[in-house]
Amino acid sequence: MLSAGGWLFFHQTCMLLLGRLSVVRTLTASEKADAGILVVSFFFSVMVTVGASMILVDPDPAIMSDIIYGFSPRAQFMIAFSSGFFLWNLFADHSTVSKIMHHVSCIFVYTFALYPTFHLMALICLLWEGSTPLLSIRSMLILMKRNKTPLFGVVNTLFAVVFFVIRILVGVPSSVLWWIRVVPHVFGEPTGGGVPLHSHAVIYAYLGGNILLNGLNVWWMVAFLRRFFKSKKSVSGRDGAGEGSGITKKD
């Protein structure tokens, strides 16, 4: 809750600072709120991507030796930092069903990781946020009606590439490998005194959350590609048509 309160305070501060910019004054109240959310998301994603990367480069031995209960103080901090963000984000930005599903899944994953559970996988999931800074910039350009500029084209392409590499090429295989290691380890162990060594309900929920988050990533990637090629086809059919492609700021 303390982390969520911190993100709420940061969002309100961003709103005050953005209100001083002439380009923001022309926006509607809801658009100004969206702009503030994008700024907060940008800073959050940069911080957790860098932080998670630094920990994974030099991980604590415990999280490498015990995939379920291995504890890392540094990972614990990053996870608490992130769980508060997604709790705030759920109330600040719930414009689509896919966003609600994403935020709720992340709240569950990172909150239960505080106990600790799956610190290593939580850090890997935080790496997926590496595509969010470009998404925030892209969405801000759309908000500012700059979606027909050369800059937007560059950002749009970079976002697609980074999203595909981080969330699909890295995210999906790492999740599959995690499944391969976790499922036998959890459900193949004998019980101690007739009591399961692990909470199967929590493990099932983690596995389900992992499927949901990967499914959302694949769905967003497919949606981006469909809009990208639709935009290209529209542009080739009539000069100046199309306003960009891919995941919009509301996806």
UniProtKB/TrEMBL annotation:
<keyword id="KW-1133">Transmembrane helix</keyword>
<feature type="transmembrane region" description="Helical">
    <location>
        <begin position="36"/>
        <end position="56"/>
    </location>
</feature>
<dbReference type="GO" id="GO:0055088">
    <property type="term" value="P:lipid homeostasis"/>
</dbReference>
<feature type="transmembrane region" description="Helical">
    <location>
        <begin position="203"/>
        <end position="225"/>
    </location>
</feature>
<dbReference type="InterPro" id="IPR050846">
    <property type="entry name" value="TLCD"/>
</dbReference>
<feature type="transmembrane region" description="Helical">
    <location>
        <begin position="100"/>
        <end position="128"/>
    </location>
</feature>
<dbReference type="GO" id="GO:0005783">
    <property type="term" value="C:endoplasmic reticulum"/>
</dbReference>
<feature type="transmembrane region" description="Helical">
    <location>
        <begin position="149"/>
        <end position="170"/>
    </location>
</feature>
<dbReference type="Pfam" id="PF03798">
    <property type="entry name" value="TRAM_LAG1_CLN8"/>
</dbReference>
<dbReference type="InterPro" id="IPR006634">
    <property type="entry name" value="TLC-dom"/>
</dbReference>
<keyword id="KW-0472">Membrane</keyword>
<keyword id="KW-0812">Transmembrane</keyword>
<feature type="domain" description="TLC">
    <location>
        <begin position="30"/>
        <end position="233"/>
    </location>
</feature>
<protein>
    <recommendedName>
        <fullName>TLC domain-containing protein</fullName>
    </recommendedName>
</protein>
<feature type="transmembrane region" description="Helical">
    <location>
        <begin position="68"/>
        <end position="88"/>
    </location>
</feature>
<dbReference type="GO" id="GO:0016020">
    <property type="term" value="C:membrane"/>
</dbReference>
